[in-house]
Structure formats: C-alpha cells, structure tokens
Amino acid sequence: MVGRYKVITLCGSTRFKNEFMEAQKKLTLQGNIVISVGLFGHSGDQEVWENMDEGTLTKTKEMLDDMHKRKIDMADGIYVINVGGYIGDSTKSEIEYAKDHGKIVEYLEQ
Questions:
Q1: Of the chain's two ends, which shows fewer C-beta atoms within 10 Å, N or C?
Q2: 107: Cβ contacts below 8 Å, ≥ 6 apart
C-alpha cells in the first residue's frame, strides 16, 4: 500500500495490449496504483528488437524479465491478463514469484 492505495502489477503476454490497457484503466478507477509493462514486444514496439544482435536481444529480454520481478516486489499483488486462459512461461514464472513473496494473485479470467 502506498497511502490508502493498493499497488498492483499487471502480468501477462504482451500480445494482449488492449486488455492490458483496459485492465489498467479499470484498476486505476477502482483506486489502485497500477504498474504495467514497459513495452509491448508481441503487439507493437517491434522496432525495439529489429536491429539487435542475438546477444543483445537475450540480455535485453533477461533485463526486462528481471525488471518485471522488481515491479512485483513493489506491489501488493499482481493482476494476470490471461485472455482465453492463456498463461505463458514468463507469466507462470511471475505468478510463482508473486506467490513465493506473499503477493495477492488475481486473474482477468477465472
């Protein structure tokens, strides 16, 4: 909590950009501080990856994964964008990380 506001980090595949944006709006209007992804690598922002060599690409993805775990550290819980029940490997890792650190885990779809 920051003041009276719960902090929530959004997790899920970046292919669901529209759902991320809708969840961010909804949760913000419910009185939460929402932390989201920094870019949408699967549904926009492809220019970020276009000219990267394999080594740089790997290091960048590792940095972004680690950075997202730090966002989970700052939050009271996570909100999983699991459209159609889809949860990929990175998101599974984030859910386990959140649970291991005592965070609340909520889902877009039950």
A1: C
A2: 79, 80, 82
Nearest Cα neighbor of 19 from 43, 49, 45 is 43
Residue 68, C-beta contacts closer than 8 angstroms, at least 6 positions apart: 9, 11, 37, 94
- How far apart CA 52 and CA 37 sit, in angstroms, is 20
22-43: pLDDT as tens digits = 999 999 999 999 999 988 876 6
Element (H or E) spanning 92, and its range?
Answer: helix 89-100
